[in-house]
Design brief:
Elements: H1 6-9, E1 19-25, H2 26-37, H3 43-51, E2 55-63, H4 73-79, E3 83-86, H5 97-122, E4 126-132, H6 139-147, E5 151-156, H7 163-168, E6 171-174, H8 175-179, H9 196-213, H10 219-229, H11 243-252, E7 257-261, E8 264-268, H12 278-282, H13 307-326, H14 332-341, H15 349-361, E9 365-374, E10 379-388, H16 393-407
Parallel strand pairs: 1-2, 1-4, 2-3, 4-5, 5-6
Antiparallel strand pairs: 7-8, 9-10
Length: about 400
């Protein structure tokens, strides 16, 4: 994944050889901008950003235009050469706002995805698809388009775009920096932004913020945060061919440390505990030496099953029990990231990972291997998945209240 690179800035010789399709998740980009900066998207700027990749032959924006906050937008979109596509919102009798919002989001996702894939299949002349959204649910659409030889560009807000989405796309353009910045770049002093020491200083500040807020520490997310703080950040300005090399140089200087967790590169402060998952603990251990519970690392006797530690474990088990209802195949990192992102416990991500590792060793979870097909690598691979051991005393205690509620 790259930001708007030199080939786009260099001129028009390359750009106008391709046809481009522009698809806008209007509600996503509009709410992201309004909630942070109290402003609305600039339709003309979006169209111009897409046109830098070629001739825009279709441009569509998706939303429920009957809702009060969107009723005035269609006329402006038509004026910018963008077709508004109506997506109805299903009404719930419940007052649960979360359910209503999820239905609205999913309706737009489905309609936009179906239209984009259909257009891709019926129009082989379309080389580039520009998706304006920050929603990680569009990862599957990105994969589908790229597997058919199309180039995918994502435009989204630097503070809210899913890092998984930007990792899969060919190019990422931060709306608030490249498309419609609040502050005019003309005359802006960028001398610091091309200074490597300043870039590393900014990186360390971001790492402290990530640890304090419990945000994802994956490289893709860190790069988004670098872009949000340094408008012209590009690791290639400093002689690095990619962001990973930039991070490795920071590690060499002792500013951070990097580690591959669950097949993903992550970064930590020098004094921070690494998130080591169960695969690391089991590496090099013959399978015949593992007991039925998988316990052989000695953690069972060391975990503080008293007072706060025990109550936190009960709370974590109860949450994962709910998670398991909708997620039959739970990987280690899936459980850790969901628990951390939802603020289940007042502890760090690495502490949640440690707690889960110990719980696995103590037989609270059952481990099995699944073979899955990876579209990214076009190959099959094995992954470890986990299920709660419903016969374990702590699991019974944690889920007893839920069982009573369901029976009543």
């Amino acid at each position: 994944m790259h930001n708007l690179d030199s080939r786009v800035r260099s001129g028009t010789q390359f750009l106008h050889q391709n046809d481009v399709a522009l698809y806008i998740d209007w509600e996503n980009i509009k709410y992201s901008l309004w909630n942070k900066d109290s402003r609305v998207p600039n339709a003309t700027a979006l169209k111009e950003a897409a046109s830098k990749f070629g001739r825009v032959v279709v441009a569509r924006a998706y939303a429920n235009w009957q809702e009060h906050q969107h009723q005035l937008d269609p006329n402006d979109l038509y004026s910018a050469g963008i077709e508004p596509i109506y997506v109805p919102t299903r009404t719930y009798t419940s007052t649960d706002a979360v359910k209503t919002n999820n239905r609205r989001k999913n309706s737009v996702d489905v309609k936009l995805t179906v239209d984009a894939v259909d257009f891709c299949l019926s129009n082989p002349n379309i080389h580039t698809f520009v998706l304006v959204t920050g929603d990680g649910d569009f990862i599957h659409l990105v994969n589908a388009l790229r597997s058919r030889g199309r180039e995918v560009v994502v435009i989204g807000c630097s503070w809210s775009t899913s890092w998984q989405l930007t990792s899969m796309a060919d190019y990422f353009i931060p709306y608030d920096i490249e498309v419609d910045p609040i502050y005019d770049k003309v005359g802006e002093d960028n001398t610091e932004d091309v200074d490597l020491e300043h870039a590393f200083k900014t990186l360390v500040e971001i790492m402290h913020d990530i640890r304090r807020r419990g945000e994802p520490n994956v490289f893709a997310q860190i790069r988004l945060l670098m872009l949000s703080r340094m408008r012209n950040f590009d690791e290639r300005h400093y002689g690095f061919s990619n962001f990973r090399e930039f991070m490795k140089e920071a590690e060499r200087r002792g500013l951070i440390k990097t580690y591959n967790v669950g097949l993903i590169d992550r970064a930590y402060l020098p004094d921070e505990q690494l998130e080591v998952d169960v695969h690391t603990h089991m590496k090099g251990i013959p399978s015949n030496e593992l007991s039925a519970s998988g316990a052989n690392t000695g953690y069972a006797s060391s975990y503080p099953y008293k007072e706060d530690g025990r109550s936190m474990l009960i709370k974590l088990i109860r949450y994962i029990s709910e998670l398991e209802r909708n997620s039959p195949y739970m990987s280690f990192n899936f459980m850790v990231e969901n628990a951390a992102n939802n603020g289940i416990l007042p502890i760090s991500v690495s502490e949640i990972a440690t707690m889960l590792n110990i719980a696995i060793d103590d037989g609270i979870f059952k481990r099995e291997t699944k073979t899955i097909y990876s579209k990214a690598t076009n190959d099959y691979r094995e992954i470890s998945v986990f299920h709660l051991n419903r016969s374990h005393p702590l699991v019974i205690e944690a889920t007893e209240e839920d069982m009573v509620s369901s029976e009543s």
